[in-house]
Amino acid sequence: MVEKLRRLAGHELRLYASLALWLGRRTQGTAGGRAFGYARGQGATMFGLAFVCVVETVGVSFMLRDMPTAHDVLLVLDVYTVLLVVGVYAACVVRPHVVTPDALRVRYGAHVDLRIPLSAIGAVRRETRMTHTPAEGALDLAVGSQTSVTLELTEPVRHLTLLGRRRDVSVVRLHADDPGALVQALTRP
To answer: Which keywords does the record carry (predicted)?
Structure first.
């Protein structure tokens, strides 16, 4: 239980670090490689959610104006929620997929960072999928319920979930803003 709480706290710290990087227009972990973003398709949804949270904050503040303690507690929680929502989006922007000379680093926000050696990629194809049935040995990293690139691996790669569970994956489906360029970068000799 302590390990899970530690991992959740680390995830939250990575979200806030991502928020700082995003405000500074920087990326994380892209040195020595070519970055491929995947956040473009979820920006409007995430900012819409943040806007709804701000509206809720204003509404709750108005309703609790005569109860200062409850008002202050909920204001802190609401600001925390808005920062968390924007931090999730920021993590997706500043932590793109990265192709290096020896590996593909598949990422999703602050909670997935999977290194796949290029030698372990058996097949890569551009494949738009809108539905994803959970399957043993498959990792689906959809953005807006959509993946655009499928990787079939010649050997399983160990994936560590957010709470520390180990999974071996042999198929990885992910989204990229420019799937054709990602496929080309992975198939070029």
So the answer is: Membrane, Transmembrane, Transmembrane helix
Q: Among 143, 111, 114, 112, which residue's Cα sits nearest to residue 15?
A: 111
Indicate the pTM of the whole model: 0.89
Nearest to 161 by CA among 111, 108, 117: 111
Domain with 163 in it: 97-187
Query: For tokens 């819409």, what's the residue?
Result: 48
Work out how many domains the chain is built from and give that number.
Answer: 2
Q: Stretch 43-68: mean pLDDT, rounded?
A: 93
Task: Determine the angle formed by the axes of helices 68-94 and 43-63, rounding to 10 degrees.
Answer: 170
pLDDT at residue 44 greater than cutoff 80: yes
Contact 103, 136 (CB under 8 A): no
The set of residues, in sequence order, having a beta carbon less than 8 Å from that of 15 and lying 6+ positions away, is 84, 87, 88, 90, 91, 109, 110
* Nearest in space to 97 (alpha carbons), one of 87, 84, 111, 107: 107
